[in-house]
């Protein structure tokens, strides 16, 4: 199987979470792997102005590598990327810190290109409870208001690092389907970040999307996880919630130094070292499984899904078709959803 085969003979490949040390090498690997769209993290603990600085840095990358990447803002930009041989980059936050305590910034960050925002990153936030807190109190008063505003402007609610009650309340309160962009089922591997059957079923019943993570701490066997085990887990999850609600969110953190791990886990909220899902003996990024080292290896997942019994249509949906459909409905502001201003590009994919 040729991972760089022309897009006309395959569906889109979409990865709904990466946080790399971005470089020409990574962008070329995206192209070698035929990756058409990637949701990238541009904020963990950053405030609004720090997040804007990260957008400035991305603008320079879009300018410098305009032959490889483009800034994705609407679902149609995936088709544009495929037509022009590039990868569409969609922005997201893993914490609501960029909106600080100001609900008016929800619309501002959407205008700047953000398309996903987690209501919390592991800890309690102003909006919801993270998966590392001992007590889950659900959505806060501000959280409910922010979810309503996110629905209005077209900013997707992401509950990847949230606790169960908060996630279930977000599903119930949101007028649009939400996403869990990068996690795995707890029935397969009981990491704090992985999701219960109750959450998975509620997400599927509400029309939401779930992205499977390739981050070793979320995998059964961690770095030694096999492709067969991963694909069998995908099949079991499809039986539970329906294949149409599933995609990939690899959580690939490529070429990052330890200082980035520290920022992700510690930020400014503690003076102590917080190892999170790591350990004192191995506090850095874990090794990726050998069958998924970087963006060139999505073809291995396709092959593994086929070997597990998935047919071509379901494989195409899992590899990106489901995310494309979700983007089409999720990114457009409420006042534009039924008008000609809805940002879709009429390019066959």
Can you tell me about this structure?
- The strands form two sheets. Strands 1, 2, 3, 4, 5 and 6 form a six-stranded parallel beta sheet that branches. Strands 7-8-9 form a three-stranded parallel beta sheet.
- It contains eleven helices and nine strands.
- With 349 residues, it is of the alpha/beta class.
- The chain is globular, with a radius of gyration of 18 Å.
- The chain has a single domain, classed as Alpha-Beta Barrel (TIM Barrel).
- Helices cover 37% and strands 12% of the residues.
Number of strands: 9
Mean pLDDT over the full residue set: 92
CATH architecture: Alpha-Beta Barrel
Q: Give the distance, in angstroms, between the N- and C-terminal Cα atoms.
A: 20 Å
So what's the overall shape?
globular
Number of H- or I-type helical stretches: 11
Strand content: 5-15%
Structural class comes to alpha/beta
Element-by-element helix/strand order: EHEHEHEHEHEHEHEHEHHH
CATH topology: TIM Barrel
Helix share of residues? 25-40%
> Can you tell me the residue ranges where pLDDT is under 50 for at least 5 consecutive residues?
1-9, 344-349
Instruction: Profile the largest sheet.
Output: 6 strands, parallel
The total domain count is 1
The CATH superfamily name is Metal-dependent hydrolases
Using the coordinates above, name the CATH class.
Alpha Beta
Output the radius of gyration.
18 Å
């Amino acid at each position: 199987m040729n991972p760089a085969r022309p897009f006309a003979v395959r569906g889109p490949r979409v990865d709904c979470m990466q946080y790399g040390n971005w470089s020409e090498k990574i962008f070329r690997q995206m192209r070698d792997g035929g990756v058409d769209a990637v949701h990238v993290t541009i904020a963990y603990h950053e405030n609004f102005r720090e997040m804007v600085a990260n957008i400035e840095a991305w603008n320079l990358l879009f300018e410098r590598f305009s032959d490889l990447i483009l800034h994705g803002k609407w679902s149609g930009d995936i088709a544009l990327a495929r037509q022009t041989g590039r990868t569409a980059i969609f922005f997201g936050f893993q914490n609501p810190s960029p909106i600080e305590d100001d609900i008016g910034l929800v619309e501002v960050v959407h205008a700047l290109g953000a398309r996903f925002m987690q209501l919390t990153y592991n800890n309690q936030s102003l909006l919801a409870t993270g998966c590392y807190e001992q007590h889950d109190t659900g959505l806060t008063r501000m959280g409910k208001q922010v979810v309503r505003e996110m629905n209005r402007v077209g900013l997707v609610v992401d509950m990847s690092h949230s606790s169960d009650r908060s996630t279930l309340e977000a599903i119930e309160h949101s007028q649009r389907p939400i996403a869990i962009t990068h996690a795995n089922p707890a029935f397969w591997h009981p990491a704090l970040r992985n999701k219960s059957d109750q959450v998975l079923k509620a997400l599927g019943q509400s029309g939401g999307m779930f992205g499977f993570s390739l981050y070793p701490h979320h995998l059964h066997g961690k770095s030694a996880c096999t492709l067969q085990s991963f694909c069998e887990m995908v099949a079991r999850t499809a039986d539970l919630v329906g294949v149409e609600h599933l995609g990939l969110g690899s959580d690939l953190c490529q070429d990052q130094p330890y200082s980035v791990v520290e920022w992700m886990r510690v930020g400014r909220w503690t003076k102590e070292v917080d190892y999170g899902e790591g350990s004192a003996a191995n506090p850095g990024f874990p090794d990726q499984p050998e069958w998924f080292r970087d963006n060139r290896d999505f073809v291995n997942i396709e092959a593994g899904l086929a070997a597990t019994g998935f047919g071509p249509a379901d494989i195409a949906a899992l590899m990106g078709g489901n995310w494309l459909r979700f983007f089409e409905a999720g990114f457009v502001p409420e006042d534009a959803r039924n008008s000609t201003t809805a940002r879709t590009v009429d390019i066959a994919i």
